Structures are given as structure tokens and as C-alpha cells.
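Justification of resources, computational component.

The compute hours requested in this renewal are based largely on the per-chain cost of generating structure records like the one below. Each record pairs the submitted sequence with a full C-alpha cell output. That output is archived, and it is also reused by downstream analysis tasks.
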Amino acid sequence: MPIKRYKPTTPGRRGASVLTHDAVGEQGLVKSLSGPLKSKAGRNNTGRITVRHKGSGAKRKLRILDFVSPIEDKKAKVIGIQYDPNRTAAIALLEYEDGKKAYTLAVKGLNVDDEIETSRTKGIDIKIGNRMCIKHIPAGILVSNIELEPNRSAKAVRSAGSSAVVLSQEAGFVSVKMPSSEIRKFRGDCLTTVGQVGNEEWSLVRHGKAGRMRHRGIRPTVRGKVMNPCDHPHGGGEGSNPIGLKHPKTPWGKPALGVPTRNAHKASDTLIVRRRKKKK
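The structure output for this chain reads:
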């Protein structure tokens, strides 16, 4: 998807760019694979804000993707590459041999009329778009759309342009280098897709104006220092004042910046071989 850059005809257009989505293959939304997407705007069931800076956004429908792949050991044909407003990557519309259809993430190099295969029980060809157990993939191959646990839906490496690298196998586990540079182990029965997630130019898009972020459902973020004392521990004072604390705090009064927040007893800690490299 090439990037289109606008001429600076208005202040909002100056420096703005968009991705041009090529309409390839079938573009109609499959009703059985879509549903309503209610806007929660960061509120809980009582209406209180639990996640800040969310709200408004363009109205859209949910595309139900096949992250579990229940149709096994069957070949599918790609009949369309479509735009999904709910994610950064494009999605591929598949049609299986028995006529059933499914959505999946479109990997780089996947085209209309390509045939892909999914299998949990056997090793299949190492081909772009094929989905198989990670234990059947040799070292050095780029993979994406990985299950953290077998039969529990793919949750890792799903954003546009992301990919992981298979490193080695040992005692039923496969070591994989994640996009964050973290090296972790996966069970050999976890499903993964061969190839890198497409639409890698997404990170180069410049929105140009605040309104485009509002269309995405993202509300403005301001510093705690410019808030009132009732809204943030850093707030209050006249003019430009220091925060008046020994160390910065979150809006809820907990220490911020440099304080570890990860759960010390998280189950997946034992599967992490090497932590990610922190940015300096």
C-alpha cells in the first residue's frame, strides 16, 4: 500500500499523508463474519472513566477474524484483500473447499487467488500465508500471528509490519525472537502464520491534524502539570511551577517513571529467555 502525500493547501494538509488501499478481489463485507462495534469510550458499566483519552471516533463494524483456525487440514483460496478500520494491518478473505469463508490477517506477499493451508496435525509447505504448528517451522523463518497457548487464539505479533524469527527447538518448546527483541519460548503446538504482517508502511503515515486522531477514537492528552490539584498530583500553582514532589506520580498517586509495573508472579515469566532491550 503506497503512501499518498498531500500538498499543503491548508494547515491540516501540510505534512499529512495517507495509505492508499488497493481494492483487490472481493471487497464486500461478509455479514456472517461481521457485527456491531459499540463505542464504550473508556467507560465501565457504571459510566465512570476507566481508560482515559478515549471517545468519539468514526462509526465502524467489527470484522471477526479467524485467530483460532477451526477449519483444519483444508486448503483455502484468497478471494480478496480488504481494509479493516479496526486494525493497522489489512485482512484477507478466504474461501475454503467446502464453501465456508473466513477472515485472516494478510501477510506480506499474499495475493488474490493464492492457496493457503492450515494444519495442527502435520507439517506442510513453508509457504507465505500457510498456518501450522510452530514446531514444524525451521530456524530463521519469519512468522506472525502466534498463539501464546495452543487452541487459545493468536494474540502475539499481529500489528502491521511486525514479525518474529524462529531461533531453535528444545524439549517441546520453540525459542522465538519477538519484534521487541525479547526472546521467549512457545509450546511447539502453538499455531503461527508463515510470513510478515503486511501494510508495513503504516508507521510512516503522518496524520497532519488532531481531527484525524479523533476519528480514530483518541481524545487529547495533556500534562498533569497543567491540571488542577483535584485532577492530578502534579496540578495546581500559579504560572509555570515545579511539581513539588521528590519524584513524579501517576494521576492515581502511584510512583511513575522507572518503576516496574509488570506482575512479579506472571505465569509467562518462566518462558522468557531474554528480556527486551530498553530504549535509552
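The CA atoms of residues 34 and 63 lie 5 Å apart. The chain has one domain: 3-203.
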